[in-house]
Amino acid sequence: MSMSATLEECLRSKGSRYEIVHHPYSHYSMETAAAAHIPGDRLAKTVLLEDEHGYVAAVLPSTYAVQLSELRTTTGRQLSLAAEVDLRELFKDCDAGAVPPVCTAYGMRTYLDESLTRQPDIYFEAGDHEELIHMGTDQFLALMDRAERASFARRIQGMTV
């Protein structure tokens, strides 16, 4: 698989400037950052959550973890981690575990952690496990203009940039 069609359309419609970064196959975000030789704080990962009202996405640096209590306060919802297998139908054009952060393009409410806004540039999954999109933070924030910004993530203990 290559870049998801939904992401490609989103990038095109926003007139985004970006580059594609190829890297060896990786399974999870910190492995991806290492394989691509990029700082983990600049790699945006997408965490999928759910409650009785449906699914939401949280976008945060790969070196951070979602603080569910803070996100629950922000959203007023009792969110918990979603099972990726339940979301395969929604993200048909993405490999499991390689969902790009533009979840609003998939009709999903999306929350962007403020810590990403302070990075000079951002990388994120293109929809597979071998390509990343790289763009300036201004381009990323324009792409994520429909996401709600909040502070809901904390650096993982012992995690280096």
From TrEMBL:
Highest taxon listed in the record's lineage = Bacteria
Which InterPro entries does the protein's record reference?
A: YbaK/aa-tRNA-synt-asso_dom_sf, YbaK/aa-tRNA-synth-assoc-dom
Keyword list, A-Z: Aminoacyl-tRNA synthetase, Ligase
The YbaK/aminoacyl-tRNA synthetase-associated domain covers 30-141
One GO molecular-function entry: aminoacyl-tRNA deacylase activity
Question: What's the protein here called?
Answer: Prolyl-tRNA synthetase
What SUPFAM superfamilies does the record point to?
Answer: YbaK/ProRS associated domain
